[in-house]
Write a structure and sequence with these properties.
The protein is mainly beta. It has one helix at 50-55; strands at residues 12-17, 23-28, 32-39, 42-49. Helix content is 10%, strand content 46%. Belongs to the bacterial ribosomal protein bL28 family.
Amino acid sequence: MAKCAICDKGAHFGIQVSHSHRRNNKMWKSNIKRVKVNVNGAAKKMYVCTSCLKSGLVERA
């Protein structure tokens, strides 16, 4: 599973509990995209989550 190169956000694990209180293991995947990013003036492909893209922490190439 990919992780964000900026904030290191990845998959989250936990237990999903239904209304009848049956419990199942669950994995929540974060919204991570592979985008071209300007790094020191050069374009490079990186895995970045959409919250980092939206907040302007990275600049797209």
